[in-house]
User: What shape does this take?
Amino acid sequence: MYKKYSIAAGAALAVGLAGMVAPAVAKVEGDTIVIGSSLSLTGKYSTNGFHTQKGYDFAVKRINDTGGVKVGGKSYKLKVVYYDDESTPSRASQLTERLVKQDGVDYMLGPYSTTMTKAVAPVTEKYKVPMVEAEGASRSLFTQGYKYMFAVLSTSEYYLAPVLDLIAQRAKAGWKSPSDLRIGMAFENDGFSLDVRAGVLDVAKKYGMKIVIDDKLPADLSDMSATLTKFKALKPDILLVSGHSKGAATAARQIEEMKINASAISITHCEAAKVHVKFPKSANGILCPTQWLTNLPNSEPIFGDAQKYDADFKKAYPEYNTGIPYQTAQASAAVLVFKDAFERANSFDRDKVRDALSATDMNTFYGPIKFSEAGNNIAKPMFYRQIQADGSYKNIVSHEDMTLPRKVSY
Amino acid sequence: MLDNLQLLFVYAPVMNVQMLLDGIFIGAVFALAAYGLALVWGVMNVKNLAQGDFVIMGGYIAFTAHNLGIHPIFALPFIAIVMFLYGLVVYQLVIKRVIDNDMFVSLLATFGLSLFMQQVMNLIYGPEVQTVDSHMYIMTMFDDFVTVPTVKIVSLALAAVFATAIVIFMTRSRMGQAIRATAQDARAARVLGIDTNKVYMFTFALNSAICGIAGVLVSMIWVLQPFYGIVYSLRTFAIVTAAGLGNLPGVITMSFILGWVEQYAGIIAGAEWQIAAAVFVLIGVLSWRQVQMRRQRQVVR
Assistant: This one.
């Protein structure tokens, strides 16, 4: 009697062990290609983590519904395995290790934010797992010589630099000489914002613009009134601020409070900080950099153009009816890049897929994508939107679209 | 740096008015939170690392009130009561168990409490930055150069009112006297029939309520984020360490000094030195204390 049970228990144990030894998920299971991703679904990056996940899911579903990925004459479906990295870098690298070693995943989609990507990239590089990331913009990610990481977005030094080009063009068109323009700027003292600053310095030098204030904000500073008081005394023409949504909210609040009258103001992450809702007065005329615009003309067979992506996505996820964050669009673009690379490689061999990724040269609803040697997308520029008096955003294509000097009344 | 000094004292001396005013407003908010910390530290010898998170929690309750259409200033008494009750609960669950242990236990416990509060606020309100609009008029002086938002003046007045109320409470009321007696010598107080456990509980709850009030002011002047408490914890620790425990005038003076030092360091040395300057002040005060104490020790010898 007991013996019978113990045999049954032994058999169950053996089956269980066998299950543990064999990888739970293989790289290609039957007709499904499995891609791994560690995303921040809880913790401080969770909002954007979810935006990213929806972008991945939407693209995966669309690709699967429109014939899947064709490799070797056979059609495969995509599937993404997610883990929650809790917005903690060390957790993200552990989970990536687990995805690759235990779950046997051969391809990765990137996590959210530069910080997380920095934690994940060394692991994917070690195991030679191709990763397409959509949410890590820092220049410093692309100076490490990574060979298996590709990023669809514009890197951080292009966040505020092109706005100076636009302003200079306007200045030349009969406002004042670009070299007479003076800049006051404040950047958070972190990797991302200092990259943004490096880009600004280059362009300012090109036009001979003078930088009269160049402050670095500590990461935990919620008060930039000292910088703005100096700004009022020196009266530069242009105000540039970068410090994620916290910096954008602080800047907008204190610009309003201190009645700052700069001809041009550009702040990163102002959409994420919802400054147009919270501080409508000071938000008027602020130029916000964005990775993606909904009126881009580029079109491809899966999603159509940006406008169609926008409409289709809102149909699938009605909670995004007020606007789709660019984080979502670029996540979808990353999945498109993988599909394209699989089909061109015509193989599931990691290195062949990696080489195909490296040779990517495609047009998407998100903009053109072509990777440099370092893995960043060099084909797509950064775009701008200007906040209007009624709180809406106007897409800026050329300098003629801008209201400059901005008209405010506090 | 030199051109900044020139700007400050030669070209645009009006800037000083703005900075002195801003320093006072910042100091007033810090003073509230710092006095709460001095109270808990002095009476119970608990170094509350979650001090800043209590402030942020008060801010988030104000944010909720704002979303419900109640102006945070009118919600203030209610928020103070909620925070007082929250303080009672935290005392019963956590603080009570660590009072008699050594310093590290109380540091660890309050650090854990801080992480816990951050994560709960993150779950409820999300990680985005939130602000509360006070809808108050912004006054201007010197041809629009100096701006003074009414909400900051109101905050200063509120901070003054509460500081006075606390002083009166501490000197006149029975409970205030018991708190002071316990702070002086807990054992003697117990012998004389003071229920020190009750005193501790009340002190901690009072601190929680004071932090809540500071949080309401923070929500209207700066920004809220679940992980932002550490900023206020750091500054209140600096103020209390420099001012000394149980020294309300010292805490207030130190808060204003800190506010001014931050403002001037921000202009003269650049914003990256703003918080560093506050820490330098702390180091300066501590070094000065060392010198003073050495002299006293020699006398004793």
